[in-house]
Amino acid sequence: MDEVADVHSAEQQLIKALPKMAKAAQSEELRTAFETHLEETLAQVNRLKEAMESIGEPLKSKKCKAMEGLLAEGKEMMEEHKGEPTIDAVLIAAAQKVEHYEIASYGTLIAWAKQLGHDDAAELLTETLDEEKAADEKLTGIAENTANTEAEEG
Ligand SMILES: [Fe+2]
Ligand SMILES: [Fe+2]
Q1: In this structure, which ligand is nearest to the CA of 105?
Q2: In the chain, what's the furthest Cα-to-Cα distance?
Q3: pLDDT level of residue 151 (50, 70, 90 thresholds)
Q4: How far is the CA of 136 from the centre of ligand 1 (A)?
Q5: Tens digit of pLDDT for each residue in 63-101?
Q6: Could you tell me the distance, in angstroms and rounded to a whole number, from the CA of residue 27 to the centre of ligand 1?
Q7: What is the distance in A from the centroid of ligand 2 to the CA of 120?
Q8: CB–CB of 110/125 below 8 Å?
Q9: C-beta neighbour count of 120 within 10 angstroms
Q10: Contact present, 108 and 4 (Cβ < 8 Å)
Q11: Residues near 153 by beta carbon (within 8 Å), at least 6 away in sequence
C-alpha cells in the first residue's frame, strides 16, 4: 500500500511538471509526446484508483521524494538550457529518468500484486507499465532521430 501511495504521488507530481516540459520543448514532435503522456498519466491515476478498488483498499498518496528529486534536477537542467539547441536533448534525458523510475515502480507493484493474488490489479497496472515503456521508447526515438543531432550542431 505504501508503494502504491508513493507511485500515486509520483504521478501527481508528473501531472504538474509535464505541461512545463511541453512548453519548454522546441520540436513539435517532443511537445506532442509530452502532451500525449500527460493524457496517459491522468488516466494512469484513475487506473490506480480502479486497481485499489479491485482489492477493496482506498487510494492514498505519500510524497514521492525520488520523483521530487528527479523533477528538481530536470527543472534545473531546463533552466540552464532554456531556448538553446540542446534543450530537447536535455528534456528527453530528464524525462527518461522519470519514465525509468515509473517502470521500476510498476514492475514491483505488478510482481507484488501477482504474489498476493490480486490479478485484476496486476492486469490494470500492466496496462500502465506498457504505456510507460512505450513513452520511454518514443523519447529514445526522438533523441536518436532529431534532438541529439540538433544539440550537437547547436
Ligand atoms: Fe505514469
Ligand atoms: Fe510516465
Answers
A1: 1
A2: 54
A3: very high
A4: 11
A5: 999 999 999 999 999 999 999 999 999 999 999 999 999
A6: 22
A7: 21
A8: yes
A9: 13
A10: no
A11: 85
Phi, psi of 27, rounded to the nearest 5 degrees: -85, 145
Which pLDDT band, with edges at 50, 70 and 90, does 149 fall under? very high
Q: How far is the CA of 36 from the centre of ligand 1 (A)?
A: 12
Confidence of residue 139 (pLDDT cuts 50, 70, 90): very high
Q: What span, in angstroms and rounded, lies between the C-alpha atoms of 132 and 49?
A: 17
Please state, in angstroms and rounded to a whole number, the distance separating the CA atoms of residues 9 and 76: 21
Q: pTM score, two decimals? A: 0.96
Ligand 1 centroid from CA 113, angstroms: 18
Cell 490480486 -> residue = 118
The DSSP annotation for 39-72 comes to HHHHHHHHHHHHHHHHTT--------HHHHHHHH
Range 110-127 average pLDDT: 98
Those residues whose beta carbon sits under 5 angstroms from the ion ligand 1 are 11, 41, 44, 102
